[in-house]
Amino acid sequence: MSPPKLKILLASSEVYPFAKTGGLGDIAGSLPKALRQLGHEVRVITPKYKVTAKCPLGFRPMGRDIDVPVGPALKKGFLYESRLAEGVPVYLVGNDEYYHRDELYGEQGREYPDNPERFIFFCRAVLESCKATGFFPDIFHCNDWQTGLVPVYLKTLYAQDPDFARARTIFSIHNLAFQGNYPPARMTAAHLPPHLFRVDGLEFYGNLSFMKGGLMFADLLTTVSKTYSKEIQTPEFGFGMDGILRSRSKDLYGFLNGADYEEWDPETDPLIPENYNAKNLSGKQECKRELKARFKLSLPEEAPLFCMVSRLSAQKGISLIMESAEKWLADGAGFVLLGSGEPRFEEFFLNLARKHPAQCGAIIGYNEELAHQIMAGGDLLFVPSQYEPCGLTQIYGLKYGAVPLVRSVGGLQDTIQEFQSASGSGNGFKFRPYENKYLLQAVKKALSLYKQKNTWRTLMRNGMNQSFGWDHSAGQYSRLYYKLLSH
Ligand code: ADP
Ligand code: GLC
């Protein structure tokens, strides 16, 4: 007999295509579809931002409001309903005071000062919307600090609530560096009892930490690659949380993210100029031509086109690109970048493009369509991150034949194998010490292999023929949910 299907509510501060700033949005938009394919009754909950209005999936008001106490006020939440492909219901929590803004988390490099209130509101809205909709999940699957108080509420303010008596919580870490740490006065705004503000509770170096809430109060923890699950238990990658993670190491699992190949497959992608696949690569040539035209590059036909699609933050190893770019541009490579983030990085790339207009182009901003076109037109994708919980761009790069050159950390380590010319095995290039000379060694190898057309095609095809879909990881999550409920 097959096990009973579970009710799962996945809570995330971003869900593609409603709103996205990075990989969390991709995952929150695709894992639920895969869980649904396994037969689970899965729903998703996320804030309704200003940008959500542009989502092609649309949404409609449910005619149900919730009241959420935040500090002394009772804040209204308006519930809207939509569906992901495969029919997964999505609840959008509307509150214009908190969410009707130009960005999701902040502007001009500064986070919105009321982020604690915005996500206190969201965490409680997750629970209150269960009451409003009558959907009481077996599993609350929470993601990153913005949902860190959900497990805390369930074990405190809602502990005696019969509606949630059976519910268990999973907290997934997508990026340990973003922790949601705020002055202790926010405990009152969250209506959390003062005794929770202690070292084995929510206190983290004198602040209230949403991330720590998730780590301490969730029944089980996951993160998005096996290697990152180990790294975060060390001081080097633990951002101060490594001790807590070591103390919970039996409850911590590393499941690699899956890619949504309905969105990211060059064979069917409607956003790229010409479709192609591993057997017939001619369309990729056309994509490269169009990409060069888009960036107004005049590169020789035989020159490789390097590329990068990234948040421009120190995490992404931008300083290594800054130190090495002149060198590989001098070696004849082209380069295109799409990204946004820290102004110093944005300026660097704009200047580089100004200095080398025939060879180098940079577009600052967020552009989903162009991200696909760069994967399709690029020959080599840089992901030299300082740390990388999973990383999705290298997984997309593999499928599009934009060969990843990565630093071997976190999910990059788990997805990329060094290409071996002798055996023709491997799908990319790796280096480890965070130093320019090691990145340059990898680039040198790539440049020389690129000249050997057949070898390069083997390398591309090795990656294009791989599958990092959800089949495997969704099953791992599903088994974990059952395990948790059987306790
Ligand atoms: P992270 O979540 O740390 O930013 P990931 O590699 O997991 O890194 O996911 C990044 C996601 O965001 C990918 O889908 C990538 O295509 C997308 N992305 C990053 N920067 C941009 C941008 N400027 N425009 C469009 N998409 C972007
Ligand atoms: C985070 C990480 C990234 C990961 C993504 C989705 O933003 O930085 O490595 O792929 O979350 O899990």
What does this structure look like?
α11 (343-355) links the parallel β16 (334-341) and β17 (360-364). The radius of gyration is 23 Å and the shape is globular. A nine-stranded mixed beta sheet has the order 3-4-5-2-1-8-9-13-14, with helices on both faces. Strands 17-16-15-18-19-20 form a six-stranded parallel beta sheet, sandwiched between helices. α4 crosses α6, α9 crosses α12 (368-377) and α13 (393-400) crosses α16 (453-464). It starts with 6 loop residues before the first strand and ends with a helix. The protein is 36% helix and 21% strand. The protein has two domains: 7-258 and 470-486, Rossmann fold (3-Layer(aba) Sandwich); 282-464, 3-Layer(aba) Sandwich (Rossmann fold), CATH 3.40.50.2000. The longest helix is centred in the first third of the chain and has 19 residues, at 115-133. The protein is an alpha/beta fold and 487 residues long. It has 17 helices and 20 strands. The structure holds adenosine-5'-diphosphate and alpha-D-glucopyranose. Adenosine-5'-diphosphate binds at residues 22-24, 26, 309-311, 338-340, 366-368, 371, 390-393.
